[in-house]
Amino acid sequence: MSKARSSPIRSSLIHLALISYTLIALFPVFLTLVNSLKSRNAIFRDPMALPTPKTFSLIGYETVLSQGDFLGYFQNSMIVTVVSIALVLLFGAMAAFALSEYRFRGNMMMGLYLALGIMIPIRLGTVAILQGMVATGLVNTLTALVLVYTAQGLPLAIFILSEFMRTVSDDLKSAGRIDGLSEYAIFFRLVLPLVRPAMATVAVFTMIPIWNDLWFPLILAPGEETKTITLGAQMFIGQYVTNWNAVLSALSLAILPVLVLYVIFSRQLIRGITSGAVK
């Protein structure tokens, strides 16, 4: 009887905690979107209020699209993010397949070594990375950002995908080998389709820190032609005067790709997370 009573209470507390966390997480997004549609005076007068016909203004978006090359910054961020995610998924899946499928000396140590990349922030090597980019002439290029973000995302991708690939049936792969499929064909035609939820999870977890990053674009690619959207938004923040309408509008536009990606891959993302939790 006590267990039956405690179960609804426990469920209610869990839902209350999840709803509270959701509201806290969405509050800054809501505040940014709402205030990007208001005049400067209305932002400071009552930042929590919704736009009204009197306070509604698109001056921030007009400023963002007219000053600087915001569309170019958006394009740079999109190129860096898409290419980095593609490389992380490709090389991460290949490495995960090798670690999960083949048994060789040092297999476990290799997995632990790659897992260290999750625990050690890549920013600790900023000086060495900058020196390497200067030596190779890659400063102020999008290639420098792609290389750094690919290295940053591989450890987590390998860790997640290797766990999923261990659950793929050995009989399926053995049948493929009997039918004459090469290891590449087994990987691309048999294994990858079965781990699509995990790859969607990796893609989302990889995209968010890349899209929101300011550190490496500021250090490796601060040039006007290579600025990303987060770095481009800084042009509206001055030492003495900050154009908050433009800043909030730029941030609102920067949020859109992340929301679109979540809407498209939300089902696969949830499937990947819940499957990983069961494992």
**Helical residues, percent:** over 70%
Shape: globular
- The name of the CATH superfamily of the domain at 71-226 reads MetI-like
Number of helices: 13
| CATH architecture label of the domain at 71-226 | Orthogonal Bundle
What class, by secondary structure content?
mainly alpha
In N-to-C order, the SSE pattern is: HHHHHHHHHHHHH
Mean pLDDT: 84
Strand content: under 5%
Alpha-carbon Rg, integer: 23 Å
The count of β-strands is 0
Low-confidence segments, given as residue ranges, are none
Q: Terminal Cα separation, in Å?
A: 31 Å
Reported for the largest beta sheet, the result is:
none
CATH topology of the domain at 71-226, by name, is MetI-like fold
CATH class of the domain at 71-226: Mainly Alpha
Explain the layout of strands and helices.
Elements: H1 2-35, H2 40-45, H3 59-66, H4 70-101, H5 107-119, H6 126-136, H7 142-165, H8 170-178, H9 183-191, H10 196-212, H11 215-220, H12 229-232, H13 244-278
Structure commentary:
- It is found in: Cell membrane.
- Keywords: Cell membrane, Membrane, Transmembrane, Transmembrane helix, Transport.
- The chain crosses the membrane at residues 12-31, 78-99, 111-130, 142-165, 186-211, 244-265.
- It is a multi-pass membrane protein.
- The chain has a domain at 71-226: MetI-like (MetI-like fold).
- It has 13 helices and no strands.
- It has helices at 2-35, 40-45, 59-66, 70-101, 107-119, 126-136, 142-165, 170-178, 183-191, 196-212, 215-220, 229-232, 244-278.
- α3 (59-66) packs across α13, α4 packs parallel to α7 (142-165) and α7 packs antiparallel against α10.
- The longest helix is centred in the last third of the chain and has 35 residues, at 244-278.
